[in-house]
Amino acid sequence: MLDGKRVLLIISGGIAAYKSLELIRRLKDRGCAVRCILTKGGANFVTPLSVAALSGDKVYQETFDLTDEAEMGHIRLSREADLVVVAPATANLLAKMANGIADDLASTALLATDKKVLVAPAMNTMMWEHAATQANLATLKTRGVAQVGPNAGDLACGEVGAGRMAEPAEILAAIEAALGTPGPLAGKKAVVTSGPTHEAIDPVRYIANHSSGKQGHAIAAALAALGAEVTLVSGPVHIPDPTGVKVVRVRSASEMLDAVKAALPADMAVCAAAVADWTVANRATEKRKKKAGAPPPVIELAPNPDILAAVSKGEGCSRPRLVVGFAAETETLLDNARDKLARKGCDWIVANDVSEGTGTFGGDSNVVHLVDAKGVEDWPRLGKDEVAARLALRIAAVLGEGK
């Protein structure tokens, strides 16, 4: 997939530098030429010999190497590549990038490049959450710098939280996407559900919820950006359709289930819709009229079809290789998410708190927890587009490994 492509990989000083060796191997396996800059800090964690052996090229470390600078080394390094990747990207190097500091070969090459840059941050949680780091990342984003990760989990310092560098497979998927090569999900089909459902009480009224569809639509767009053929089954929403996605509009849960089954088989299904648990059993065919002195009408409820369980268990349909569900909860979030994972039979649950005041429903950001059979991964608060991009890359990494 990367035949003829060239990547300049900058390895800076962090314990996650060991992952860069695996990244080099994966890039080479896909036909990509890899040239590496190793910072002084990076050399404390991986050796120039190991990097050179895997890349099959000289490792560059010094700005004023007479042989290389006679040929304008830092300019040539930065311009001959199709993409510059910084993995790991430390807080220090991100700060240099944001402020235009060029005091070593890595920062000089980054300042001199006219190519797209992808960073994979890695650092302690407090450093990652610091306002200075977040401001630097915001600045870099406005300049077109792409980002993958970081993930949350156990850190080398013994703390737990966001700051783990993305896994090599995730970085590889981001590289493929950045280079515009056939994406890591090219040739694969995806079904995504989004938005609320409307369960009619009568021809005028319905039962619904506050879901805006922003998260589900963002996931559909992110999967399409990685090359997947995406069918988005959407309940009633007031947001634009994602580009490059087939959209099927439905209203009720039963309509959504029919549309999902019609879109199968697929390689992956992401059930992000906030489907109503109940429908109205005694739906009126005419508008229920309010009458003076009469009590309110009695509304009888009946269970809606369970779309996530049906897809996960292959009930009347072909089960996708990977099924992801969402758990929107207001209490005991993780306990409910684990229970849902077991009951529904899906592979992952993306759990989020939709309690009043969180701003999740209708908002532009989300705090999610990725739950699978191995445990829970807590993600920091991210924009819904960022949540979608990270989830799409995680899906690509798994399906790309044939798991």
UniProtKB/TrEMBL annotation:
Region described as Phosphopantothenoylcysteine decarboxylase: 1-189
Cofactor binding remark: Binds 1 FMN per subunit.
Pfam families: DFP (PF04127), Flavoprotein (PF02441)
EC numbers for this chain: 4.1.1.36, 6.3.2.5
This protein's pathway: Cofactor biosynthesis; coenzyme A biosynthesis; CoA from (R)-pantothenate: step 2/5; Cofactor biosynthesis; coenzyme A biosynthesis; CoA from (R)-pantothenate: step 3/5
Function of the protein: Catalyzes two steps in the biosynthesis of coenzyme A. In the first step cysteine is conjugated to 4'-phosphopantothenate to form 4-phosphopantothenoylcysteine, in the latter compound is decarboxylated to form 4'-phosphopantotheine. Catalyzes two sequential steps in the biosynthesis of coenzyme A. In the first step cysteine is conjugated to 4'-phosphopantothenate to form 4-phosphopantothenoylcysteine. In the second step the latter compound is decarboxylated to form 4'-phosphopantotheine.
A cellular component annotation (GO) from this entry: phosphopantothenoylcysteine decarboxylase complex
GO biological process, one term: coenzyme A biosynthetic process
Chain spans, region Phosphopantothenate--cysteine ligase: 190-403
Gene name, Swiss-Prot/TrEMBL: coaBC
Protein family: In the C-terminal section; belongs to the PPC synthetase family.
UniProt-annotated catalytic positions: C157
Catalyzed reactions: (R)-4'-phosphopantothenate + L-cysteine + CTP = N-[(R)-4-phosphopantothenoyl]-L-cysteine + CMP + diphosphate + H(+); N-[(R)-4-phosphopantothenoyl]-L-cysteine + H(+) = (R)-4'-phosphopantetheine + CO2
DNA/pantothenate metabolism flavoprotein C-terminal domain ranges (all copies): 185-397
SUPFAM superfamilies: CoaB-like, Homo-oligomeric flavin-containing Cys decarboxylases, HFCD
Residues that coordinate or bind CTP: D277, K287, P305, D306, I307, L308, F326, K340, K344
Name of the protein in question: Coenzyme A biosynthesis bifunctional protein CoaBC
Cofactors that this protein relies on: FMN; Mg(2+)
Keywords: Decarboxylase, Flavoprotein, FMN, Ligase, Lyase, Magnesium, Metal-binding, Multifunctional enzyme
